[in-house]
Amino acid sequence: MERAPAVRCRGITKYFGDVVALDGVDLDMPRGQVHGLVGPNGAGKTTLLGVLLGLTVPNRGSLEILGAPVDRVLAVPDGVGGFVDGPGLYPSLTARQNLAAVARLRGRGIDQGSEVDEALEQVGLVDVAGDRVRGFSLGMRQRLGLAAALLTKPRLLVLDEPSNGLDPVARRHVHRVLEGLAAQGAAVVISSHQMDDLAALCSEVTLLARGRVVFSGSVGKLAAESGRLAYRVLTSDAATARRVVAETPGLDLVPDRHPSRPDEGAVVARGQVSAVDDLVVRLVGAGVAVRELGPLVPPLEAAFLTLTGAEGALAEVGAP
Ligand SMILES: Nc1ncnc2c1ncn2[C@@H]1O[C@H](COP(=O)(O)OP(=O)(O)OP(=O)(O)O)[C@@H](O)[C@H]1O
Predict the structure, then answer these.
(1) Domains of the chain: which residue ranges?
(2) How far is the CA of 159 from the centre of ligand 1 (A)?
(3) Which residue's CA is the closest to the ligand 1 atom numbered 1?
(4) Ligand 1, residues 12, 13, 47: which to mutate, most atoms within 8 A of Cβ?
(5) Which atom of ligand 1 is nearest to the CA of 43?
(6) What is the pLDDT of residue 312?
(7) How far is the CA of 48 from the centre of ligand 1 (A)?
């Protein structure tokens, strides 16, 4: 059983009236990893997370969680924790009282003292443990929701936009918690619109569009499938660099449409990674120093725009 993936969806379909929110989703999510769900607004991410949390019953398809088939009933499957659409919290109770309430409700042996303190510590809320949640910011509520989920020691943790409202320090904190959980063998599934979060955290991502899986696999594979990206190259000699780009097979020189970053020495070249490798070798051979080199649009974002049919947005940044 432990060998089974954390999640196995086959043909999961969900309608809301005439709207097809999920349209035959086949998906495996392994244990011991953070798996990202990404897609445009209305793609079906929250609906899928709701199915995993037992909040939404699909119309068709089969679901296995942690090796066990899930019945078509509204119930949190064993070993699963998390939340969608924000954590459910009691505003008039303090952070510690909220967690103690979770411990009592979901309990089975959760210590209302030490384990609650440990969860508060993990999400960095010890200093405000005695404050009422009514006065909490969005980011503090998000972290308290995460602490509540951690208390139940989930083997599958499901979170909708976990970085929503977090400042950079809190965001790092949450990343560490999620990575730690995955390192201990749990599966973590998050949805996010923040590509840098997904790139930093996720071993694998699933891209949903109009309720269908359009890609599922490693971030590296997704970037490779996005094809020819535009790279900005800052060198010691722009004129020679332009000539070398023009001479390098598989590369096109494209206008830098980022006038807000006026680097006289920068050129923008579009092509596969292998052609860009070749360019660097040729530049050095021509006595031109490469000072900076990077994709104009991060590969994950480029893949998102390409695979969801939003190439127009890519064209705006010189990467058609
Ligand atoms: N309870 C509901 N009743 C009716 N329609 C719904 C309901 N929940 C979701 N939908 C519809 O199902 C589709 C998928 O919605 P969902 O919230 O899963 O998308 P999402 O990818 O999470 O979007 P976002 O990025 O905006 O959060 C949308 O067309 C949405 O309007």
Answers:
(1) 7-223, 226-316
(2) 16
(3) 16
(4) 47
(5) 21
(6) 61
(7) 10
Superfamily of domain 7-223: P-loop containing nucleotide triphosphate hydrolases (3.40.50.300)
DSSP-assigned letters across all residues of 114-178: HHHHHHHHHTT-GGGTTSBGGG--HHHHHHHHHHHHHHT--SEEEEESTTTT--HHHHHHHHHHH
CATH 3.10.180.10 applies to domain 226-316: no
> Looking at the predicted complex, does its ipTM rise above 0.95?
yes
CA nearest ligand 1 atom 26, residue: 41
CA of 188 to the centre of ligand 1 (A): 21
* H or E element that contains 308: none
**pLDDT range class, residue 320, cuts 50, 70, 90:** very low
Q: pLDDT by residue (tens digit) across 28-54? A: 999 999 999 999 889 999 999 999 998
Cβ-proximal residues to 136 (8 Å cutoff; 6+ apart), any chain: 95, 128, 144
Which of 191-195, 221-225, 298-302 shows the lowest mean pLDDT across its residues?
221-225
215 and 288 Cβ atoms separated by less than 8 Å: no
Residue nearest to atom 16 of ligand 1 (CA): 44
List, chain by chain if needed, residues with CB within 6 Å of any ligand 1 atom.
16, 19, 21, 39, 41-47
Q: Place 261 in a pLDDT band, splitting at 50, 70 and 90.
A: low
**pTM across the whole model:** 0.82
Residue 20 CA to ligand 1 centre (angstroms):
9
